[in-house]
Amino acid sequence: MTVPPKKENGRTPSKKSSQDKPPNSDSFAHHTEKMGDVTPLGPDNRRNPSQHRTSFTQKPSSQKPNPAPLNFPEEEEPLLARRSHVRRNRFKHLRAGKIRPQRELDLHGSERGLAKTLLISSIKDAAHSGVECILVIHGQGRHSQGGEAILRTALPSWLTNPELQEYVLAISPAQPEDGGRGAVYILLAQNQNPNLIK
Questions:
Q1: Residue (of 175, 127, 155) closest to 70 by Cα position
Q2: CATH code of the domain in which 166 resides
Q3: What is the pTM of this model?
Q4: Highest mean pLDDT among 132-136, 146-150, 158-162
């Protein structure tokens, strides 16, 4: 004879169903078993995401803006020019020989290639040394073949060379006592950075 289950508080206890198990208990146990050999990371081994971010901040450009070009006001005088930021009064003093040359470079009789090299290096060195004005003697070509003033003709292109654009502020034919049409005054930008001189 089968004895019916004893009632508690008037109710018959029921069997536990599979629904009473914790959710996903089987999968959790299986996952824990698979992770048994894994060692948790200590605080010293954890990666801080902020330490590995790449900065895309654009650095300011170190390049200097290009200076204003030399303006040649008189077509018949190729050795008369100034940059726009040079004051007219200062340019007038240069033309009159009132800004006295502190250095002199004599290219008269030099071969064309050597003359260009000497001119460029002398201008850079003078600008770095704080020289305001130099006198360049180029000659008038009286002793050259055909009587052509080779150096005088080449000077405008040499002085507008990009390599010299930050050094040369203005140029003017010299006064008679300084060589006249056989020489030229060159007004320089002073105290240039020596790291820019090559």
A1: 155
A2: 3.30.1370.110
A3: 0.63
A4: 132-136
